[in-house]
Design a protein that fits this description.
It is a single chain. The protein has helices at about 5-20, 25-35, 45-55, 65-70, 75-85. The chain is mainly alpha-helical. The model has no long low-confidence stretch (mean pLDDT about 85). This is DUF1040 family protein. InterPro entries: DUF1040, YihD_sf.
């Protein structure tokens, strides 16, 4: 795991862990894995799954994924023109 990924994971994990100070790190990671729907052994969970779960957990369930929301267009015509490289 690259250093910036470690820093991002720690930054996202800190407030969650502060809400559950009695939990140890393994318990917290197991809880995040369960919430994300990960069913494999804990040693096989990727940092991407943990980061995604930590980023998406506080969001409303109906809210669009932030990475997708920036590319979303309300109007089909605008989306089609943008896809063709024509900005309106």
């Amino acid at each position: 795991m690259q250093e910036h990924r470690i820093e991002e994971l720690i930054e996202l994990l800190t407030p969650v862990w502060k809400k559950q100070p009695d939990s140890n790190l393994c318990e917290l990671l197991a809880q995040l894995a369960q919430q994300s729907g990960f069913e494999g052994p804990l040693k096989e969970i990727t940092d991407d799954v943990l980061i995604y779960q930590l980023k998406m957990d506080p969001l409303d369930k109906d809210q669009m994924i932030p990475g997708i929301a920036k590319d979303c267009e309300d109007d089909f015509r605008t989306a089609l023109l943008k896809a063709r490289g024509i900005q309106s």
